Write the structure tokens for this entry.
Amino acid sequence: MSSPEPRGHQLGLSLLGTEISVLFRRKRTWAMLAALAAVPVLIGVAIRISSAGDSGRGPSFISAIAGNGLFVGVASLVLAIPLFLPLTIGVVAGDTIAGEASQGTLRYLLVAPAGRPRLLLVKFLGAAVFCFAAPVTVVIAGTLTGLVLFPVGPVTLLSGDQVPFGDGMLRLLAMAAYAGIAMLGLTAVGLFVSTLTDVPVGAMAATVVLAVTSQVLDQLPQLAAVHPFLLSDSWLGLVDLLRQPPIWTTFGTNALLQLGYVVVFGALAYGRFTTRDVLA
Amino acid sequence: MSAGLAIETEGLGKRFKGRDAVVDVALAVPDGSVFGFLGPNGSGKTTTIRMLLGLVNPTAGRAVLLGSPMPERAAAVLPRVGALVEGPGFAGYLSGSANLARLDSADPLADPRTRKRRIGEALDRVGLSAAAGKRVKAYSLGMKQRLGIANALLRPRDLLVLDEPTNGLDPQGTREVRTLVHDLAREGTTVFVSSHLLTEIEQMCTHAAVMRTGRLVAQGTLDELRGAAVDDRLHLLTPDVDAAITALVAAGLPATPSGAEVVAPLQGHAVEDLVPALVAAGIRIRGVRTAEASLEDRFVALTGEGFDVES
């Protein structure tokens, strides 16, 4: 009945392809990316209008914007990483399994048969693509805003050193990569939560709440001992890429922390999803 | 397990939180049959189907699909099975054909090079070609149901499992599904179709099984089921009800009053022998008729309720 077939789709590449294309065919995805892109535009416009009397107040990146447009992207990433990014990632990751269940497509994907481990992996990878698409969107919108509204040139780093514009741009992309990696742990958490319910909104809300809780706990000095293990502990470490030389160990720590979350919550999601009854 | 069976279960059971949904089901669905799976709503049909397809883990017994145990061999078996489970389920924001492409890409054995053609053929087969590019959220329930059937037909299948396939379809659509099932059966596909509508099963199927409160209460060819049906009955219109009952019981027929009539299963007795005997016993007879037992009588007797009740 079936002819000899290329190996690619047996591995699930075909399913991953449709997963990603479906993700980017949804209006919701574009609405979230547009909202993220609005962050740098709003910041840029606000600074441009009020830049006359720059008092040096506020986060240092914000005050640096008037001097160098490249900092629009930097400031936006730093602003987006505690809430806006987790919010959009929570929506995408919380929707992974629960969304299919509530839509009635989960049973058809499984009967196709997608295979439960394969479907889970594809869902994670699809959400991971969004993890990177989101900060890259912020960086692109930030850079464009910066180019239009402000002078650009050599970048003055946190350490006071100056690097050429191209170098600054590379660092900005590295920061986007850092932010994408920083969201992978949350994606795995959302994936797990999504296997627990058939109500996507519940899974999305729970994921976002967990992201916020992690940051609250990270603020309590009494819990200093657990801080290094909190999901969000490494999120703001992306500014270390603006030092000279960039502190790559922070990049590594972030990757390791997120990998840990991916492994633990990926295993939990696997344990739950491969054994549960699919009644939706 | 036995050869020649597309579906076979042994002692299949499912318990949800202390409640038995399915108990000790032993199905035997012959290859090439059109097998009706009957039962009132809530009798465990869909749970059984979900277990057959590996969506729900049985808490007892085992299921064998196309010769391989489920859910262990799901990856090898399910590509040979097309299914419609508890109504269609599609992404409303995607077109009908995009939904099918997505589900087809989830099948590791489906060839992406022929995907477009197969989707076109499946849509054509259920009469949805014109709406292929429309978003599913603009579909009527009947169109979604057709799309669900198209999904089951994306590849040549050895077994089709159709759960309430005519749900939401108008009479015309119902007839089309019936024709489709006949055509598929002629091509050699075994069709396992569930319904709570007896007439539908009678028109489509060669075999049937009946579920009642989670248990399988009857199974066989339609003729076997009819043969095992309650006897033809004698309906006697008489003013002498009590005397008639006494006489019939004396003749070995468990007669009972029913309105103005006396009703008794014939149990092989001939009407032409019974009537003179009754007349000879001084019973006045105003009318005599016999009622042939229908499949419906049998199913009502088995399930304790009628089937033509939508709920």
Remarks:
- The first strand of chain A starts at residue 155 and ends at 156.
